[in-house]
Write a structure and sequence with these properties.
By secondary structure, the protein is mostly helical. It has one domain (3-117). It is built from 6 helices and no strands. Helix 1 packs across helix 5. The longest helix has 27 residues, at 3-29. The radius of gyration is 16 Å and the shape is flat. The chain starts with a helix and ends with a helix.
Length: 119
């Protein structure tokens, strides 16, 4: 992979992760409300619009990324988002990383490494 591909890939990971963190924070805040009131409260919270903006940016950058790599490689490399978001969930929300999840992370990381190294 050339430097441009790596930079675009890393940017998609970063923006996707930030968007997921925004939505998780929003979901936690939304627990204060029930039913329709929850959805109305969400619509007024800047975190929702920040998360949506992150997703829109990620969508555009993902399209750029897919223009640089074969689809099969792009989708495989996109799987690393799962790992990064899982780690971010642990760091920011104290979510549990079970043994099974860590084994899954190893498999995903190995697959991404194989694709990234062109093996």
């Amino acid at each position: 992979m050339n430097a441009l591909v790596v930079m675009v890939w890393m940017f998609t990971i970063a923006v996707d992760t930030v968007g997921q963190l925004a939505f998780k924070a929003l979901a936690i805040k939304g627990l204060e409300y029930e039913g329709k009131a929850r959805w109305l409260a969400f619509a007024k919270m800047p975190m929702l619009w920040f998360g949506v903006t992150c997703y829109l940016i990620e969508f555009v950058v993902w399209l750029a990324f897919l223009s640089l790599v074969p689809l099969s490689d792009g989708v495989m490399l996109g799987c690393i988002n799962i790992v990064v978001i899982m780690i971010a969930g642990r760091l920011f929300f104290k979510e549990q990383l079970t043994k099974e999840r860590l084994i899954g992370v190893l498999f995903i990381s190995a697959g991404v490494a194989v694709i990234g190294l062109g093996l």
